[in-house]
Amino acid sequence: MGHLTARDAYRNLSDRINWFTQGAPQSETLYKILQVLFTEKEAKWMALLPVRPFNLKRAARVWNTTEAKAEKVLDHLCEKALLVDSWHNGERQFVMPPPMAGFIEFALMRTRGDIDQKYLSELYYQYMNVEEDFIKDLFFVTETKLGRVFVQEPVLLNDKANHILDYERATHIVEEAEYIGIGLCYCRHRMYHVGHPCEINAPWDVCMTFDNVARSLAEHGDYCKLVSKEEAMDALERSYAANLVQIGENVREHPAFICNCCGCCCEALQAARKFSPMQPVARPTIFRSRLITNASAAASARRSARFWLFPWRRTITGKSIR
């Protein structure tokens, strides 16, 4: 009976996760992932919480407890990056992040001793790379894409730069952010644990979160480090130098994250290769080839595209990667 009760707790949590527009298809692997991230008690608590942001009073009411006890639980869930908090009109509010980009990534944005990150990475790989239902739902179930690609600013000519809208520049997002956090790249961390380390040895410390999400992750559990705009620009420069692709939340203003992605580890770029006709990630409004007239800059852009979207055409240390 205890086993059935525990199973019910995780099934109810799975149902709650699927209230999001972006859900998580149920499978035995998903249950195992939830068991790593949530205790049975935490699963029961989380399954009762609203989808929309809520305050302390609302949490205490749905849990049928006092506000003092509810606040301790909420603080604990924030420390595990299962909730993020914010302040609105002087009132603290909470919200459960979606699976991705959300609590799935947060679990690997720093090294942790409270969970088995290798085992969790293996479960992630099974759920996303082998079973594929989650990735297909994530990128293709809605017409509006989860993520969008930012322009490769280093290859743009000065006389063409005025054609690029501010919201399509990663540097503009950095300049406009109130808080900037940098953590470990979830994708490269995961693939390292499953025995497929990054083929180009790209930097890990370039995963960028912004504004309230960055503040909450930094204040609760040190899942990222708050940095200055100059430090964030340095992370972008290192990412450009490593030939990484900038993919961020598909909103025009104040995206919550920008990932600096390599094609060997990033689920979005892997999906772009595997399911390319369905275009899993939104492109910049003005396609890059229309903006680049300089021959060397155009060649650089073509190499970057081929490098990650067509890995069978590139070579590393003289050997073709297929």
Per-chain topology:
Elements: H1 2-17, H2 28-37, H3 40-47, E1 54-55, H4 56-63, H5 67-79, E2 84-88, E3 91-95, H6 99-106, H7 117-130, H8 133-140, E4 147-149, H9 170-176, E5 180-183, H10 186-193, E6 207-210, H11 211-219, E7 225-226, H12 229-241, E8 245-249, E9 257-261, H13 267-274, H14 295-309, E10 315-316, E11 319-320
Antiparallel strand pairs: 1-3, 2-3, 4-8, 5-6, 5-7, 6-9, 8-9, 10-11
Helix pairs in contact: 1-2, 1-3, 2-7, 4-5, 7-10, 9-12
Distance between the termini: 50 Å
Proportion of strand residues? 5-15%
Biggest sheet descriptor:
6 strands, antiparallel
> What is the assembly state of the chains in this entry?
single chain
- Helicity level: 40-55%
Strand elements, count = 11
Secondary structure tally, helices: 14
SSE order: HHHEHHEEHHHEHEHEHEHEEHHEE
